[in-house]
Amino acid sequence: MPMDLVLAPALSRPDLLAGPVVAALEALDLPGPVEVAPIDPDLADTAEFCAAYGIGLAESANCVVVAGRRGQETRYAACVVLATTRVDVNGVVRRRLDARKASFAAREDAVSATGMEFGGITPIGLPAEWPVLVDAAVVTAPRVIIGSGLRRSKISLTGKALEALPNAEVLEGLGFAG
């Protein structure tokens, strides 16, 4: 039997959100409810979380940090795709960042730059200069579960709320089955 996901309005539980996420949610007016739920941090990875809490992979979205390099310059972006897909790092993301080479950012770099825990990084509250690339399929989802900045909780919101984030860009083909 799946565990219950006990949701509450996100700002009523700042203890379940990373500091940058709290600050962003206080400053933003996102469409639809934005809720947070505590989870077992040992089950924060997407597949384990979905199995334990009875959430379909198509309802869960992953946020990964990608580093694109051209010469000595490194540009970062957050990429949000449904858990049923993978990020097209070497195609869509590399071209969007105008990079010669793109790859997932090193764990230490992602954690340091975001102020969030690895495995809980979320598109809410990221550095202002980063583009937030959102796959078009995520935006059409009536509800998605994403990280909270911490491994011990998850955020529930509409796909449209992700489109409304600062620096959000909706891209067709960002996520691919594979």
From TrEMBL:
Residues 41-163 form the YbaK/aminoacyl-tRNA synthetase-associated domain. Pfam families: tRNA_edit. GO terms for molecular function: aminoacyl-tRNA deacylase activity. It comes from the Bacteria. InterPro entries: YbaK/aa-tRNA-synt-asso_dom_sf, YbaK/aa-tRNA-synth-assoc-dom. This is YbaK/EbsC family protein. It comes from Frankia nepalensis. The lineage of its organism: Bacteria, Bacillati, Actinomycetota, Actinomycetes, Frankiales.
